[in-house]
Amino acid sequence: MTALRTDSASPDNGRFSTAGAGAVSVGQAFKRALVSQCHPTMLFAVLLPFLITLVGALLLLYFFWTPLVEWLGAQISRVDMLNRAEDWMLAMGLFSLKVYLIPLLACAILLPVSGVLGLAIAAVFVMPLVLRHVGQREYASVGRKGKYSTAVSVWNAVWVSAAFAAGWLLTLPLWLVPPMAIVLSIFWWAFAFSRMMRVDAIVEHASPAERKLILERNNGGFWTIGLICSLLNLLPPAWIILPVFSALVYAHYGLEALKRLRQDRVIDV
User: Fold this and answer.
1) In sequence order, what are the residues at sequence separation of 6 or more whose Cβ sits closer than 8 angstroms to the Cβ of residue 75?
2) Which of 57, 112, 238, 258 has the most CB atoms around it within 10 Å of its CB?
3) What is each CA distance from 250 to 42, 99, 150, 167, 191, in whole angstroms?
4) Cα(175)–Cα(179) distance, rounded to whole angstroms?
5) Interval 154-166: pLDDT, tens
6) Residue burial 23-34, b: 16+ Cβ < 10 Å; e: rest
7) How many Å apart are CA 141 and CA 36, to the nearest integer?
8) Taking the model in full, what pTM does it have?
9) What is the pLDDT of residues 81-125, one digit of tens each?
10) Which residue ranges traverse the bilayer (predicted)?
């Protein structure tokens, strides 16, 4: 009996079995990522996106805080419902609604922008370090067949960041409708994590055809990881490690999916 490996990523040449990439465990990816995160190299890698996010937040607050607050104040003053609520609260001797609402909205606009910037930095610059780290230890048998990986990674980071920023701003008025503030925050961060990291996790190792198959067959798993990461993102202390930790989770999940895909494309004759 001879084992033949197909070179095409077409589903006609190699089907996923139930034990294939579609069955890759999300829990297993998180478990392996926790172990990898404790390595000194990965602990050091946490610093880059964290510092980028911190510096980005400070610069955004320094340059855009005052004009943004003034613009928000002008926009809110045109909303009759908020003006009536403001007058009623002041008449009752309560606090001014606008005094707290405007800074809160300004933070809700500026801080996520710096956060997605840190995530993009992690995807483009830290993910290669992550892939070298986990690839040498647990996926040495997974060959690198990616093409134009840097260009693909940068383009993916740009469009996901732009879509996140636009979607976040456009849906921001819905935050006034409970509990949409939490729901929208979870959704958009799940979008950012899943769309940003899943491509970078496999772009160096998978061929374009393999990458397309993996993204199609494991879409639910990638979104599940993004949802879990977005829930963790609600906890401020997690902001420090999430860019690198999410990269580790997606790297383990994506490379395991690629490994099983190639195993399933071995046909026994």
Assistant:
1) none
2) 258
3) 14, 41, 17, 23, 14
4) 7
5) 999 999 999 999 9
6) ebebeebbebbe
7) 18
8) 0.79
9) 666 766 676 666 676 666 677 788 888 888 888 888 888 888 888
10) 41-65, 100-131, 152-170, 176-193, 214-233
